Amino acid sequence: MRKLIRTGAIASLAAAPLIGFAAPAFAENTVVVWNSTSIGPEITTTLSQKCPSTNPYPVTVRTSSGTEDSYDSQYLNYTNMTIDGRTVKMTFTNSQSKLDQHPTTLSVKLEILCSNVPQPPPSGVELRQSATIGPGGEALVIVSCPSTHSHVTDHQERHPAGVSIVDSGQEGSSYWVQYQNDDFLHPGSVDLYLTCSA
Q1: DSSP characters over 138-162
Q2: Residue 114: how many CA atoms within 13 Å on its side-chain side?
Q3: What pLDDT is recorded for position 141?
Q4: What pLDDT score does 158 carry?
Q5: Deepest in the core among 6, 17, 56, 195, taking most CB within 10 A?
Q6: How high is the pLDDT of residue 26?
Q7: Are 62 and 126 spatial neighbours (Cβ–Cβ below 8 Å)?
Q8: All residues at 6 or more sequence positions from 91 whose CB lies less than 8 Å from its CB, including other chains
Q9: CA distance linking residue 144 with residue 76, whole number of Å
Q10: According to the model, what pLDDT value does residue 20 have?
Q11: Under-70 pLDDT residues of the chain
Q12: Cα gap 63→89, rounded to integer Å
């Protein structure tokens, strides 16, 4: 757990006949907490993480997953996200068949930024899918919003200079990018970000 501190903007003013007095500013304190797990084919699980009592208000929710073979990103399906007070839960499934000759274990990390300042719970979630592309190889990276937050509100991607985008598109609540690694000597890492809202 690491702490991030940022100056807050919460202050109150006391009015007087000729002079205004400002109360001391209340600094917002934020902390990042996370949890992670891995699942095999045809398994569904719920990843849960709670904000600490000193920073009980969730501000942002992010998940991340990485695969060595980008083809495996299609098997990761987020199905449900809930926020109940201090607790955030994300349910996801590995949809790969157990009969597949090359079983894949998927890992997911749930990360929450928590604050000590009261505020409404976050209305969306950011999903990140990472993949490694071999020298001269291709990759199709797919990210899908959970059914509870099925609206795609933003998408971004990052790739090194040696990697190019061949094609990209949105299908319903999913977004995909097809990459080509033009470097025939070194692998390239790519990240696809999807922001989803209810």
Answers
A1: EEEEEEE--GGG-EEEEEEEE--TT
A2: 25
A3: 92
A4: 94
A5: 195
A6: 63
A7: yes
A8: 44, 45, 46, 47, 78, 79, 80, 81, 146
A9: 8
A10: 41
A11: 1-26, 68
A12: 11
Take residue 70 and report the two structure tokens written for it.
């980008």
Give pLDDT, residue 7: 37
Q: What pLDDT sits at residue 10?
A: 35
The answer to whether the beta carbons of residues 73 and 8 sit under 8 Å apart is no
Other CB atoms within 10 Å distance of the CB of residue 11: 10
pLDDT of residue 16: 39
Identify whether the C-beta of residue 122 lies closer than 8 Å to the C-beta of residue 60: yes
Spatial separation of the C-alpha atoms in residues 110 and 186, rounded to whole Å = 30
Distance separating alpha carbons of residues 69 and 42, to the nearest angstrom = 18
Q: How far is CA 76 from the centre of its chain?
A: 13
Query: How high is the pLDDT of residue 71?
Result: 74
Specify whether the CB–CB gap between 163 and 183 falls below 8 A: yes
Q: Are 81 and 145 in contact (CB under 8 A)?
A: no
Q: What's the rounded Cα separation, in Å, for the pair 178 and 163? A: 10
Whole-number pLDDT of residue 11: 36
Whether the predicted model's global pTM rises above the 0.85 cut: no
* Tokens (6 digits) for 118: 């009261």
Instruction: Say which residues have a Cβ less than 8 Å from residue 140's Cβ, sequence separation at least 6.
Output: 70, 71, 73, 74, 176, 177, 178, 179
pLDDT of residue 4: 41
